[in-house]
Amino acid sequence: MSSVSLAVSASPPAAGTSTVPETAGPSLAAKPRGRIDAVDWLRGLAVVLMIQTHLYDAWTSAAGKATEAYAWTRYLGGLPSRLFLLLVGVSMAIKFEAQIARKVPRATIVWGGIKRGLEIVVLAYLFRLQEYILGGGTNWRDLCRVDILNCIGASMVFTAIIAAPWRNKPQILITLLAAAACVALGPIVGPAHFPDWLPRPLTSYFGGERPMAWFPLFPWLAWPLVGVVLGHWWVRASASGNPWRQARAFVLTGIGGIAMTYAVILVRRWNPYIIHYPSDLVQQMGPGTFFYRLGTIGPMALWGYLTTRIFSRSRFSMMRQFGQTSLLVYWIHVELVYGLLLGRLHHRLSMTQATIGFVLMTAAMLGVSVLRTRYWKGFRALRWWPRRPAPAVSTAGNLPSGNLPSATRPL
Prior knowledge:
mainly alpha; about 400 residues; single chain
């Protein structure tokens, strides 16, 4: 599953390289760009947060869930899905920049994004089918639930349509306006009741109630759209050849994120009911939560940048390793955490015991990730028949296979 590749290059980069595309300017078009290692690092951080979110939810007892420590795991649990979706947009922007440099027609760019998104949607249903079979499912509606993989695939489809470059120029304004619309309509469309004559497996992509609509496009589509804008900025800063410009971009990202978070806190202190929501769930779909969480991610991006700058790429990094195989880790750990194999641990552990389980699960998934990148080259490597040589095109913009939110190599 993690070996599917949509890159057109005959010689894709090694796993783990988040290659930055060629510049759009003619003077630098032939120069290879540096890599944005912070993107892989952030993706790996999202993987670790994802594991802790699911494991504490599934294995902690009722008494453990009443503790303050568990409440902190829920606070952190609001980050991985948003971070994954944001990085979807960043990865798509990396690809867009490469296509701008090659003057790829917009129709080709859009169709490529749509195809990649639809592939992930198909994978989401295959994953749900696996859960249904292995978990002894009884409700067929579980197969149609819109979860994070469905949201990622659908988001890639709409992000490609909205944010693809026009006449070799990034569509920053249109993308930001679309993101603002998703945020504004999130608490309205997100929890909306649609007419019964409309198929719920379809309407759940836009809004509705749980358990069918866990990640509807309103407001979740806003995250990859904002990611596209950030990605264009980071890529062009990295492509300038001036390390200070790249550093400034990430420093401003961190400072801007902190300012955004504190702005939301101050507004809530001034008037906590400035926007009235019917429930806490609807509030989570509102603009306050969006900007608060987006602000929280800003310092994380700066943290990732500083970490990858201080420590040499030749040194092993757990975050970067996880960042190369996020879909594989997602696919396996969900079955282990929620499935029947370790069912005896469900809702029975104290916070201390669950923390030990979290450490062991993280170590096991890290082992799986290392085995994947070192010894498994993907299903294409198993083909025994000769392959037709691919045309010699630039490899700029290719991302590592096995990444959950990757634009060019989504699996």
